[in-house]
Design goal:
Layout (H helix, E strand, L loop, with lengths): L7 E7 L4 E7 L3 E6 L4 E4 L1 H12 L6 E7 L11
Antiparallel strand pairs: 1-2, 1-5, 2-3, 3-4
């Protein structure tokens, strides 16, 4: 089985109930979907700048989860 960056969803959630997602997209980099549904382009460095402090527990109250979401099984991926 070949795993690709495009098959993962990174979810950030806060104690206040806000959340946003990061996805990788073939050929054109990462993008973020905010809790309001807005979509923004992001560089890999920007994604890491959000992930690393949350994983290191430097940002209290922020939870990070990573889910495997095969493209063929995720019709709502871009919403």
């Amino acid at each position: 089985m070949t795993l690709r960056n495009t098959e993962y969803r990174i979810t950030f959630s806060s104690e206040a109930g806000r959340f946003y997602y990061y996805f990788a997209k073939d050929g054109s980099g990462w993008y973020q979907i905010t809790s309001a549904g807005h979509r923004h382009k992001a560089t890999a460095e920007q994604v890491l700048n959000h992930i690393l402090p949350a994983l290191a527990k430097v940002k209290p109250g922020v939870k990070v989860t990573v889910e495997y979401v095969p493209e063929s099984a995720s019709p709502t991926r871009d919403t």
